[in-house]
Design a protein that fits this description.
429 residues, alpha/beta, seven-stranded mixed beta sheet, 2 domains, 37% helix, Aspartate Aminotransferase, domain 1, Aspartate Aminotransferase, domain 2
């Protein structure tokens, strides 16, 4: 069994300088301890205790080529020799922008940023400027960044969430400015009729959603739902925004909008766009994006399109365009999902696996298909936490919220090791 004593000691020592010993609240509270990692290679991580771990966090989504791929290491070293930050444009930035526009269906124009949280704010600002309306509709369980005006009903308790047909908008953090949510309305996802009725009032600036719900389980839209949302938004002059920070460049070269065949007005991207570098982008219709230039809509950022990050972006996107890349990625992910299904069946453990080969979700204690946030609450989260702890002790690292991210470096041999660790962990539990 793996031991994590040095990680635990490092966290405690670092807490004298870093709040909680971490730089993101999403890294707190991991069982048996948040890890301190020395290096990554392919689909493997090596921690300060000397443990080799098969990684399914994949940086919480960004790592799609694998940890530390040689092509990216070369590209960023070459660019670093020419400079890091110019407060000007660079040719590598233009190359990256062209690649995004060629790959993403909605991308007539783009702007780069540094995080998904930032580019979501730009999308909302453009939508309000374009429509001269203020109200934004979001959905329970969908996450669009941690800022006050959008961190609403991400993981609400049912005791306060109100009825499913009219959910209450609940802040996600202590200290949050509640006035910032005055123009946010929360609805249940995957229910078309209620959204149609609401949008016909003609006062909604934008509908923002994850086109595949990946922050809660891994829930695909019901047949016809996205198509219906697209139609209603067009009819009512409402801007449709897809938050593809997780799905973009992960589920398909052009993201979920390409995979599902529905094109939004604006879309936000991050994570897999640069295989671990802090790059995000907002993409969309030219008439909307050009409001950043012609209509006084402010968007800025010192580190937007930083040159080394752009080198990583270009190298990543070119790798994703290689023939057979996604076919192999999907084949390995399907093999893992099918193997997990067999193990749960043979061990007699109730489980639900759903999603796509590159991002799927495992829930224990239920076999029910999930279509929205509230249905995801049927899972036994305490049991799943014990399961991930047992897996980690056997050299497999998975997120406690149930998401599994795969990458190009997950080989058949690593998948076989994973499945054996899953079986051993379940039998122990």
């Amino acid at each position: 069994m793996a031991d994590f004593k040095r990680s635990k000691q490092g966290l405690q020592a670092a807490s004298q300088y870093l709040a909680g010993g971490v730089s993101s609240n999403f890294r707190l509270g991991i069982s048996p301890t948040p890890l301190v990692i020395e290096r990554g290679d392919g689909a493997l991580l090596y921690d300060v205790d000397g443990n080799e771990l098969i990684d399914y966090y994949m940086g919480m989504g960004p790592i799609i080529l694998g940890h530390n791929p040689a092509a990216i290491a070369e590209a960023i070293a070459d660019q670093a020799r020419n400079g890091l930050l110019f407060a000007a444009q660079s040719e590598i930035e233009y190359e990256a922008a062209q690649l995004v526009c060629e790959m993403v269906p909605c991308a007539q124009r783009i702007r780069f940023g540094s995080s998904g949280t930032e580019v979501v704010q730009a999308a909302l600002r453009i939508a309000r400027a374009a429509t001269q309306r203020n109200i934004v509709i979001k959905f329970e369980g969908h996450y669009h960044g941690w800022l006050d005006n959008i961190l609403w009903s991400v993981a609400p308790g049912l005791d306060a969430a109100g009825p499913a047909e009219a959910p209450h908008a609940l802040p996600g953090s202590n200290g949050q400015d509640t006035v910032a949510g005055d123009h946010i309305e929360v609805m249940t996802w995957n229910v078309l009729d209620r959204l149609r009725e609401r949008l016909t009032r003609g006062d909604v600036a934008a509908v923002i959603m994850e086109p595949i719900m990946c922050n809660t389980s891994a829930i695909l839209p019901e047949p016809g739902y996205l198509e219906g949302v697209r139609e209603i938004c067009t009819e009512t002059g409402t801007i449709l925004i897809f938050d593809e920070v997780i799905t973009g460049f992960r589920v398909a070269p052009g993201g979920a909008q390409q995979y599902l065949g529905v094109t939004p007005d604006l879309a936000t991207f991050g994570k897999a766009i640069a295989n671990g570098f802090p790059v995000a982008c907002l993409a969309g219709r030219a008439d909307l994006m050009d409001k950043l230039v012609t209509d006084g809509v402010m968007h800025g950022g010192t580190y937007n399109a930083q040159a080394v990050c752009m080198a990583a972006t270009v190298t990543t996107l070119k790798a994703l365009q290689q023939p057979g890349f996604y076919e192999q990625l999907h084949q390995r992910g399907n093999r893992l999902m099918q193997g997990l299904t067999r193990v749960f069946e043979t061990t007699g453990v109730d489980a639900r696996i759903q999603g796509l080969p590159t991002i799927f979700h495992v829930a224990l204690g239920t076999t029910q298909r999930m279509t929205n946030y509230r249905e995801s609450l049927h899972a036994d989260k305490a049991l799943y936490r014990r399961f991930t702890t047992a897996l980690l002790q056997r050299g497999v690292r998975t997120l406690e919220r149930g998401a599994w991210f795969t990458c190009a470096a997950h080989t058949d041999a690593l998948i076989d090791r994973t499945l054996q660790a899953v079986e051993d962990s379940l039998r122990e539990l």
